[in-house]
Amino acid sequence: MSAGPFRRTRRLCGALLAATAVVAASAPALAQDTSDLQQLLAEPVITTASKSAETASVAPAMSTTITATDLRRYGIHTLAEALDFLSLGAWTSSNGTTTDVGARGVILPQDRGSHVLLLVDGHAVNEPIFGTALVDRGSGIPLEMIDHIEVILGPGSVLYGSNAMLGVINVITKRAKEWQGGHAVGEWEIGKGARAAAGVGLVLGEDAEVTFMAEYYRQYGPSLNVLTEQNGFDEVALHPFQFHAGGPRDGVWGGTTTNTPRADIPSGVLHLTWRNFDVEMGGKIDKQSLPYDINDVSGEAYFDDPYAFQTNRHLWVDAKHHATLSEVVLLTSRVYADTYDYERTADTSAGAECLIYGSANCRADATGVGQWMGLEEQVSFDWLRDTSLVTLVGAEGRLRRVNTKTDTLDYDAFVAGATRNIRSSYDVIGYRDETLGAYAQQTWRPTPWLGLNAGARLDVDPRFSPQVSPRAAATVNPWKGGTFKAIYAQAFRAPSIGESYSYGPDQLAAQNLRPEVERSVEGSLEQQIVGPNKLVFGVFRSWWDDLIELHLLSLQEIAQAEANGSLSLLNNSIVTQYRNLTTIEASGFDGGVEGATTDGSLRYALNVSAATTTFDDGRGPTHPVPVAPTIFGNARVSYDLPGALPTVALAGRVLGQRPTDRAFDGNFSPPPFVGPELGLRGTISGDIPILKGLSYRATIDYTSASFAPYVVGPVQSAVFAGPQTGPAVVVGNPYVLAPLDTFRATVGLQWDFGSGQ
Amino acid sequence: MARIKPWQAALLAGAAVSAAIAFLACVDTTPVTVQGTPFDGAPPVLTDAFVDVSLGDASRDGQADAAVETGPSPCVQCLEMPDMMGHGCGNEVAACMANAKCAQAISCAIADDCFDRGSSAGLIQCGFPCATDAGITLTDPAIQLAYDVFTCAASNCGTYCKLGD
């Protein structure tokens, strides 16, 4: 009989629902009991924190559960929006090319989401080359197929290994029993994009079911207004800088985009359940334009180039089997395989980069393939058969291989449809390894008011010493509805293969990178109030060590590298190398309140987090973490109008003032900050009575800020650092910040049919 | 609703996986080698894991070889660029090319890769026979023109010609 974590969640929910029916039949004499049961039912059951079903209040982490109802009610289109508008303690920040995830005062700009572990039904989708986990449109998860999202704050390496530093996001998809029939979705972001999706949920007899959904998203706007920089004359190319082929040679970077942003993203998820087997498969092709260069230390300088794009493709399959060996022992076996590849191509527009190889204009074309497969065995011992004393042990082995290269092509030949490599490939990596993780966790609830959880995971990676990630947590229920938690946890992030081995004409390969490590302590109080209303408040402190940074070499370091032959004499004066450099300390609080009226027609929530941080990269005075706000939060309220009238919802988020990514190392005076940002979203949704199962949803978004906290374009520093990757003369704006799209309207239709209900 | 048997669903899933894998044929990461281009960076340090890093090996892919073209060296590229703001030796080269003897000597030196010998001594050793063959003597005006190209190469194109010893 199947009894995996997710199944157990449903079984628990089913039991609770059955109990509800019994209690409801006994009303009104049991009114007080009904209220208690409402509280219990309102409390989400999560499976991510302990790899077993438990109520959120006793789980060894602070968490948010975002339901499918919330996603639809508040007009959510991406995982990033779900975090921004609906989660406690986490937020996202986009520079127009990548979306970063932050939590509890810490964000690592342009980390590709590698400091958060993203799971789909327990399958980790972070890839090994960069650790990428996309939460924007590129995540490739059709939202209508999501049952709920569990956002676990804080270190999660104790059970999941690398990347689970800021937290773990587990996307749980719907099962056919709750999603029977066909489902079709059409959505239009007016003037900017469109999405079409279709899916099906089929119950195949007593013990088998299939769910599947595929979607296609296309973006064709908006036009971005980017402040301009006058970059002057390219001394090497002997003409003013030109920032995309066919564009004017006037030295001006910026302006209004006409070719970008663009995106084409097909994706799909398939889930098959048969008896005790679960097989899931996901795939996506995420092709997005690169509107402008960001954080340029690589010689790239482009703007609105129609040929600058990045493509991420990912295909994965994950098969689980649950075996109840006895009333005490549950064995879960899992085998999985992933293939991921990328291509990123951009115009370098730096004269000497091209001219010395015989090309007037050239482009860098980076490609890579990562493939990995693994086997995980997990055994759970429910010693007393009542979940009060449970031992969980597991082991996971993984094989990985990575191949990458970067080519330099003649741009003009490329535009003409030909391929002309103008120099040999670099960043040529052929890598394969085996990693092993083993974990154990003991949970014990000796009394109804006390819960204990302790565990640790050992990760073995040939690139560094074995890494141990422990966690210890205690929960105390001193009074009715109240829960205290105290947690110590440690997490790590293994250097990505790219960080460990990438190199190039202007980048030295790293030397013996160590894993990043985070230690965290936190305490919280959660109080159920009346019915489904609850209050939560927690404090935390975290220490982050050995964070990997793309270090800019000093002139002395460059000379030394040239002398020992590890760097070409023809390099730029800007040379980088990944190093373990940075430490961060963060402390602050998370607080929230959420609830609903008794009949559920009015729902509300308010979340607030604040953190003070210290960022130290050893290059000067310490300062706050760039891009991270000191205070941020979100609030939402929705109301189901009576009868056939629609549901109206309003959600908002606030981010305090934030230093930009170049605020402390760009030598700009004064340092560039962005002011507070308010984002508002209004959503109206409801049924269209002309056709059974047809519904609509419309959203309007407004953002008060015009700029995101990222310096973009060729000028990344007020002090000119090199003759080839930056301008000799800058006139006008001293720096340019990434623009934000301040207004968006979306309308959509959904048709659920053939469910037989 | 049509009833699908589990094995049929599994077959469909398998077909979907196969189709997806076929659709997602991996990008080509075969490195390309272009002759005559400079050293582009250091390979990473080997670890306990198996690591195969090279600076380029086109032998695995003939198609990649076919796309390769050999261009002039960075030093010669720089020599041919017009003088401007401290870069290029186009003026000196043009003056030299206007003189038959100097033109012959410089053309010979370029053809023999004399400017890519990595040192001024190497250039002189390589270029002297070219000058002799061109009939340049110590009192010939052409020697001044050739000298101008040499000094310009060492200064304006020093980064690329490596004549700074």
Describe the structure.
The complex is a heterodimer of chains A (757) and B (165). Chain A has 757 residues and is mainly beta. Chain A is 10% helix and 52% strand. In chain A, the strands form eight sheets. Chain A has a 22-stranded antiparallel barrel. Chain A has a five-stranded mixed beta sheet with strand order 3-9-10-7-8. In chain A, helix 1 (5-25) packs antiparallel against helix 2 (31-42). Chain B is mainly alpha-helical. Chain B is built from eight helices and one strand. At the A-B interface, strand 18, strand 19, strand 20, strand 21 and strand 22 of A face helix 1, strand 1 and helix 3 of B. Strand 24 (421-447) of chain A pairs antiparallel with strand 1 (50-52) of chain B, so a sheet runs across the interface.
Helix content of chain A: under 10%
**Which value, in Å, is the CA radius of gyration of chain A?**
26 Å
Average pLDDT taken over every residue of chain A: 88
| Structural class by SSE content of chain A | mainly beta
Number of strands of chain A: 42
From the alpha-carbon coordinates, what is the Rg of chain B to the nearest angstrom? 28 Å
- What is the global morphology of chain A? globular
Task: List strands and helices in order, with pairings.
The complex is a heterodimer of chains A (757) and B (165).
Chain A: H1 5-25, H2 31-42, E1 45-46, E2 54-55, E3 63-67, H3 68-73, H4 79-86, E4 90-94, E5 99-103, E6 106-107, E7 116-120, E8 123-124, E9 146-153, H5 157-160, E10 167-173, E11 181-189, E12 193-203, E13 208-219, E14 225-230, E15 233-234, E16 239-240, E17 252-256, E18 263-274, E19 277-289, E20 309-324, E21 329-347, H6 351-355, E22 362-382, E23 389-410, H7 411-415, E24 421-447, E25 450-461, E26 464-476, E27 482-493, H8 497-501, E28 507-508, E29 516-528, E30 534-552, H9 555-563, E31 576-596, E32 602-616, E33 631-640, E34 647-655, E35 658-659, E36 673-674, E37 677-687, E38 694-703, E39 707-712, E40 731-732, E41 736-739, E42 743-753
Parallel strand pairs in A: 7-10, 28-31
Antiparallel strand pairs in A: 1-2, 3-9, 4-5, 5-6, 7-8, 9-10, 11-12, 11-42, 12-13, 13-18, 14-17, 14-40, 15-16, 18-19, 19-20, 20-21, 21-22, 22-23, 23-24, 24-25, 25-26, 26-27, 27-29, 29-30, 30-31, 31-32, 32-33, 33-34, 34-37, 35-36, 37-38, 38-42, 39-41
Chain B: H1 6-23, E1 50-52, H2 62-66, H3 74-80, H4 90-97, H5 100-111, H6 120-133, H7 141-155, H8 158-161
Helix pairs in contact in B: 4-7, 5-6, 5-7
